[in-house]
Amino acid sequence: MDHQQILTDEELTMLRELGKDQESAAGQSLSGYLDTPLLGLLQRADMLALEARFAGHQLHFPLYFTQGDDGFLEPRIAAPVIQELSHEHPRAWRLDTEGWLQHNGEDYRITSLSLNGLIVQRLPSHLKRGDAISAILRLDELAPLTLSGVLIREVREQQTSIGWAINFQMNETDQELLRGWMFQHHQSTFTQAYAPPAE
Can you give the pTM of this predicted structure? Predict the structure, then answer.
């Protein structure tokens, strides 16, 4: 049986052109074109974020857009907040590192660091739980960062005090620098997870 052409040549040409337009529109969407209602919603959002999970970790990337005069948006992400998911509740990822905490002109070795906490060895003996501390965080390849913190837990080994766990805060600019430094070390620690998939 002969197959009849139901559409005319002009109609087929129109459908092909429509398909090309749809492909172009999809490309625009991926490149950052947003309709006005959605753009307005994003501009009013208190926070935007991109999240990724792998290797037992959750990475929370702050997300923002730069809008051009043509209405196109370029998405940008900042260094992420990293959490470990292997515990009962998510907790800040901790890096075993060798840094220094400078307090009252003396340097004390740091053995563990997260975005808002650290463990430091052998602070002065008169300090006790709940004491506030102002100090400078010194890490390789990073300018000194000023922090204020509170001693929350004494770290002991066989009943002997070997250091303190400290919760700390710092200004937003320094926090962003620390977040970027932590992300770089996360990548170097989990190189296999960051490697592109094999072809």
Answer: 0.68
